[in-house]
Amino acid sequence: MEILDGKKISNQIKEEIAVEVRQMKERGEKVPHLAAVLVGNDGASLTYVGSKVRSCEKIGFQSTLIHLPEETTEEALLKQVENLNQNPDIDGYIVQLPLPKHIDEQKVLMAVDPNKDVDGFHPANFGKMALDMESFIPATPFGIMELLRRYDIDTQGKHAVVIGRSHIVGRPISILLSQKGKTANATVTLTHSRTHDLKTLTLQADIIVSALGVPNFLKADMVKEDVVVIDVGITRVPDDTRERGYYITGDVDFENVGKKASYITPVPGGVGPMTIAMLLKNTLLARERHKAGN
User: Which among 25, 37, 99 has a CA at the least distance from the CA of 64?
Assistant: First the structure.
């Protein structure tokens, strides 16, 4: 078993971006500027956005955090989105999900300028990705593909089973793995809550991507020897014996599945760090496209 070390690879990517940013500064060019909009005080969102801001500082990006109160109206949030769309200083931005229940997430995401949509959630970007056109790829699937590429994992003709059909991870990674390309050309089965006899499918899989959000769902008796396992799930499990009062775990029974896997991502330290690294990569791409368009 070899660990797919997302922390290590993400640090490599950040250093590569930092080198490009230093060269931009030397040429007197504007450096990339990433903004994040956070509504409310969700603990996981605060941690995640804070990590993004620190990463921006580390690699030399400019960053702006717009933190709005929980009671912010949908109209006020849409106005903030429009301001960011019109601000030429902002290269890319994200609206951190989940949003409070009184706000229509779809309406907000639709309002984001696709050219600044570094999360890759706008239908224009999703559609272009599906058609293998230049677009912003959602950061988590983008990170998974980069992890597979940098570890030189053979995906050609392999059977990949994706567990979960969300628009953020499951569907886009199923599309990316099935496209033409060096780290692609897989035969993909997309599974979900209505899939019959999931275990039969996972036992056939050469590669499994689990994005379900159910702790320890994937057991050792559900996988074959030498499988490649990508665990996207991340769940806080309450535990009074821990200082924080919880521990973080993924979708995969890491200890036992790891004994059969050829490669496996840990949780934390696997896909999570890659998501942030690829968000920064998308922001760099946005800056380059804006520069080319000026």
Answer: 37
